[in-house]
Design goal:
Number of helices: 15
Subcellular location: Cytoplasm
Structural class: alpha/beta
InterPro entries: Coproporphyrinogen-III_oxidase (IPR034505), Elp3/MiaA/NifB-like_rSAM (IPR006638), HemN_C (IPR010723), HemW-like (IPR004559), rSAM (IPR007197), rSAM_sf (IPR058240)
Pfam families: HemN_C, Radical_SAM
Number of domains: 2
Strand order of the largest sheet: 7-6-5-4-3-2-1-8
GO biological process, one term: porphyrin-containing compound biosynthetic process
Bound molecules: S-adenosylmethionine, iron/sulfur cluster
CATH architecture of the largest domain: Alpha-Beta Barrel
Shape: globular
GO molecular function: 4 iron, 4 sulfur cluster binding; coproporphyrinogen oxidase activity; metal ion binding
Oligomer: single chain
CATH topology of the largest domain: TIM Barrel
Largest sheet: 8 strands, mixed
Distance between the termini: 46 Å
Helix content: 40-55%
CATH class of the largest domain: Alpha Beta
């Protein structure tokens, strides 16, 4: 995997096969975040983690069988706390287990605060060709409120560097923050668009149970935009990004056509993926069934399990065709391209209930794309869970 590697292989429209590796550590825990991330005050033994990642990959390879990888994603936590040598060893390990063609998308998440030019170049030399930066906000007051360790100047520096070093770059913003209105969000979003290359992830702030924000929210000390304002913010976001040539291809993800994240598409097209590392989940097909894997979330617990058993899986559930049909719908309706109905019918053994589908069509929540695809309208996206629940039963 050299710098001369052509980028990117064109999207075939197929679900693909992804490999996800989870780095579970962060420099500090953000008060809104319930992802599997932990702060350690002692240095993390990276070679020991690498050895465990490689062992767990062998187990996952046995479960997946031989596969051609279409994307790799190093997520977290904060993977940019890894040394470039760690990243290199992980990518080499993946290529020993599965076929990794030149030019596939290899994404790594990075925090603007843990970013260093030397590390970025090291990641690039290791084979990373897409970076996803957690910028979160473009004003210092909100960055502070979100508990971030970086300020806007750090974020802009990281964006500039990422654009220089990686062929592809995206960044995340969190909106629908306390006190935010369409009037204050719009200039921030336009500024973000001006820094974006071809991909942006825009998430509405979710108050997750068990986080410090949850406690504050419950105590009435943190007030988030109500349903109407959230919907207005969402709609404004859709319009502004579409006008700027970065339309949503999924609920929260925006890209110039052709620059969608392949890895994300694999999830939403309900493809297979191997999940490696603490708290990673995976989906591996076996004939008509799919194996849903989930590993131990605690990093040291996961490490001990892998060293003992060759994997850290705590859960292996076999999904039958009905469960797969539900998941296919749940994931596929998030996408602008919608869900492939023939695949859904093959799995569920039936058509969508005509009366329910008709009602949703008449209310403008869903639409048909020819005979073969069904998708949510922008209005339907606002009540996605209800639409899925209605169609699935
Ligand atoms: C798991 S984080 C990993 C990225 C990296 N550690 C960072 O924070 O910069 C992935 C993204 O999820 C989003 N996210 C995490 N918690 C969220 C929440 N409660 N509401 C909305 N978005 C959230 C943030 O935009 C974040 O960049
Ligand atoms: C919220 S998304 C952000 C993606 C980013 N916006 C992009 O476009 O590349 C990524 C986060 O989801 C979680 N994640 C993704 N795939 C996962 C998997 N297979 N197992 C466990 N967590 C996963 C990780 O916490 C990761 O940081
Ligand atoms: S948002 Fe990112 S940096 Fe913050 S705790 Fe979660 S994973 Fe770590």
């Amino acid at each position: 995997m050299s710098d001369a590697t052509p980028f990117l292989l064109p999207d075939t429209g197929e679900p693909g096969f992804g490999v996800y590796v989870h780095w579970p550590f962060c420099a500090a825990k953000c008060p809104y975040c319930d992802f599997n991330s932990h702060v350690r005050h002692q240095p993390v033994d990276q070679p020991r983690f690498v050895a465990a990642f490689l062992r767990e990959m062998e187990t996952m390879r046995r479960l997946s069988g031989p596969k051609t990888v279409t994307s790799i994603f190093l997520g977290g936590g904060t993977p940019s706390l890894m040394e470039p040598a760690t990243v290199s060893a992980i990518l080499e390990g993946i290529a020993r287990q599965w076929h990794v063609p030149d030019g596939i998308e290899i994404t790594m998440e990075a925090n603007p605060s843990s970013v260093e030019a030397t590390r970025f170049r090291g990641y690039r030399s290791a084979g990373v060709n897409r970076v996803s930066l957690g910028v979160q906000a473009l004003n210092d007051r909100d960055l502070k409120f979100l508990g971030r360790l970086h300020d806007v100047a750090d974020a802009l520096k990281a964006i500039r560097l990422a654009r220089e070093i990686f062929p592809r770059m995206s960044f995340d913003l969190i909106y629908a923050r306390p006190g935010q209105t369409v009037e204050t969000w719009e200039p921030e979003l336009r500024q973000a668009i001006s820094y974006a290359v071809d991909h942006l992830s825009l998430y509405q702030l979710t108050i997750e149970e068990g986080t410090p924000f949850f406690g504050l929210h419950k105590a009435g000390k943190l007030v988030v935009p109500d349903g109407d304002l959230s919907a207005d913010l969402y709609e404004a976001t859709q319009e502004i990004t579409a006008e700027a040539g970065l339309p949503a291809y999924e609920v929260s993800n925006h890209a110039r056509p052709g620059a969608e994240s392949r890895h994300n598409l694999t999830y939403w097209r309900y493809g297979d993926y191997a999940g490696i590392g603490p708290g990673a989940h995976g989906r591996l097909s076996r004939g008509r069934e799919k194996l849903a894997t989930a590993t131990e979330r605690n990093p040291e617990g996961w490490l001990a399990a892998v060293e003992r058993d060759g994997h850290g899986m705590v859960d292996q559930e076999i999904l039958g065709t009905d469960e797969q049909a539900d998941e296919l719908l749940l994931m596929g309706l998030r996408l602008r391209e919608g869900v492939d109905l023939a695949r859904w019918q093959q799995l569920s053994g039936r058509d969508p209930d005509p009366a329910r589908e008709q009602t949703l069509l008449e209310h403008g929540f869903i639409e048909r794309l020819g005979n073969s695809r069904l998708r949510c309208t922008p209005k339907g996206m606002l009540i996605l869970d209800a639409v899925v629940a209605d169609l699935a039963c």
